[in-house]
Design brief:
- This protein is of the alpha+beta class.
- It contains eight helices and 31 strands.
- Strands 1, 2, 3, 4, 5, 6, 7, 8, 9, 10 and 11 form an eleven-stranded mixed β-sheet that branches. A four-stranded antiparallel β-sheet has the order 12-31-30-29, with no helix packed on it.
Length: 533
């Protein structure tokens, strides 16, 4: 551990800097009349999430820091940028920011046994569309930060409340900052992204679509870029990517601000000039949490109740694995031991012997279908079928399915929806009067997360439900994805925790959506009624 007096300079990412002029803000320059914080330098040389990586990081501790209570946090990718310590000295001294500890992290590098660089990890870490980096920050880097003390022995303590945290970066660091808050809005709620790489590097150009479809998250975003930003046209237009994201955030009801320059390129000139004002805007109203305005998503307006979100149905439920409901809105679930229970409307639980169908559907006329997964092993994909009960036996009506997991009928029972949990597709079939299924095709294209466990990107669609308007609700790893009657996903409902593994409508008038996440059952009041399955 040692203090440093020189800051890491802002990196230029492969493009000429333009001699642009921006409004002068004195708070970006050293003021000899204000109290100065200190900067500590450390190295982290072990990681479970990024094995073999070694990285440096710097910790800024303001003079006003009181170790008796956790401080707010500003996290930055690519080390110290934007003259941030000087800006914090000035704004904290003036009372325009709370007491903020800054953590400035360099990307990881992997070295061979001789100490030579084997693999730079920057793009893999920063451009990734998953929660690896934010989990690394939370479970590995920040705990390491809090092992240290200031030069005068004060322990470093950081708030875990999202309203007390901002995150920032430039280029790949800019998209990394947004991704961290997007994936964990319970940890970061204030984002400064300069010349962010919302382009086709590792899927970042898909963010505007996801933002428009996904239920708004409690994050506030400041975007910066210049019209001449085109670091590498192979991956797309950096400026257009930022403009598209800003438009999507506005559409979805986020608190978003931006600063575009006419001449700025892929550099840090403007970002450094506007950083004090960006921080004032991001932190305004603190300690109040960040809130969102109304979304422009018409399907969300139709099906979601404003101000309502997920709540636990019962704190006693911790191992639910299957769920269904009846026409009266009673909800039934099973646990890992095979026992079945009834979840009453008041949240109480009673044991029952009702059978919970999985991979089975019965029409109102009495025709029963089931999924036969065929092979005995996980790798036996492609041998599954849908079977129709005829008398005492089942007859195959669809063969050679890849990995069907769940079925549900449309409200008029003319269409059968079948999920393929090893892909991103929901298939549909016409239900004939004699029960045969015809004209099967891929119908609904689901969004899938970027996976890092070696498996292909897939939705893992586990269950489905239909509402009276014909919308299809699909339990996926990304949340509840809602398809319209044309098979287009138009809403992705937020996750309370983990992936959604089952769902159904229940409650009074079947206007409550129940889901299972990590073995616990959550419920949510809806603006639309469902159809009991």
């Amino acid at each position: 551990m040692f203090a440093v007096s020189a800051f890491m300079a802002f990196s230029v990412f492969g493009q000429e800097q333009y001699n642009a002029r921006y409004p002068f803000d004195p708070d970006k320059q050293v003021n000899e009349n204000v109290l100065k914080g200190e900067i500590l330098h450390f190295t982290l040389d072990s990681s479970r999430i990024y094995p073999g990586t070694v990285r440096e990081y710097w910790v800024y501790v303001p003079a006003q820091y009181d170790a008796s209570k956790p401080a707010c946090l500003h996290f930055n990718f690519d080390g110290i940028q934007f003259n941030a310590p000087t800006v914090f000295d000035n704004l904290i001294y003036k009372g325009e920011l709370p007491v903020i500890i800054g953590v400035f992290m360099a990307p990881g590098n992997v070295k061979d046994n001789e100490g030579k660089l084997f693999r730079p990890n920057r793009s893999y870490e920063f451009d990734a569309m998953n929660d690896d980096m934010v989990n690394f920050i939370e479970t590995e880097l920040l705990p390491d930060v809090e092992k240290h003390t200031t030069s005068d022995g004060r322990p470093i303590r950081i708030s875990k409340d999202a309203k007390d945290r901002s995150i920032a970066g430039a280029s790949s660091g800019g998209i990394a900052a947004f991704t961290a808050a997007w994936e964990r809005p319970d940890r970061f709620s204030r984002v400064f992204s300069a010349i962010g790489s919302f382009t086709g590097m590792r899927g970042g150009d898909g963010y505007p679509v996801l933002v428009r479809k996904t239920e708004p998250k409690p994050i506030r975003v400041f975007l910066e870029d210049g019209r001449r930003d085109a670091w590498n046209p192979l991956f797309g237009d950096w400026f257009k990517g930022n403009v598209d994201l800003e438009a999507a955030l506005n559409f979805a009801g986020y608190e978003v601000n931006h600063q575009w320059s006419e001449r700025g390129g892929h550099d840090g000139i403007q970002a450094t000039e506007i950083f004090p004002d960006a921080m004032r805007w991001l932190w305004r109203g603190w300690p109040a949490p960040v809130a969102n305005g109304p979304t422009g998503n018409d399907q969300q307006k139709e099906i979601l109740v404003p101000g309502k979100t997920w709540k636990l149905s019962s704190s006693d439920i911790t191992s639910a694995v299957g769920m269904t409901s009846d026409k009266e809105g009673n909800v039934f679930f099973s646990d890992m031991n095979g026992k079945t229970y009834k979840l009453n409307h008041d949240g109480s639980i009673s044991e029952t012997d009702i059978d919970i169908p999985h991979g089975a559907v019965t029409t109102t006329s009495g025709m029963s279908y089931m999924i036969n997964k065929g092979g005995k092993n996980r790798s036996d994909y492609g041998f599954a079928s849908i079977e129709l009960k005829q008398g005492k036996r089942y007859v195959k009506v669809v063969e050679n399915l890849w990995a069907p997991e769940a079925m549900v009928l449309s409200s008029d029972e003319r269409m059968m929806y079948v999920s393929d949990n090893q892909s991103r597709w929901i298939n549909t079939y016409l239900v004939e009067k004699d029960g045969t299924l015809k004209y099967g095709q891929r119908w609904c294209w689901l969004h899938t997360p970027e996976r890092t466990d070696g498996m292909p990107d897939m939705s893992e669609a586990k269950a489905m439900a239909i509402d009276v308007k014909g919308n299809l609700y699909v339990a996926t790893t990304m949340g509840v994805q809602v398809c319209d009657s044309d098979g287009k996903v138009r809403t992705i409902m937020s996750l309370p925790e983990g992936a959604v593994t089952d769902l159904c409508f229940g409650g009074k008038d079947l206007s409550v959506l129940y889901i299972i996440c990590n073995g616990r059952i959550y419920q949510r009041d809806m603006n639309v009624s469902g159809i009991a399955r």
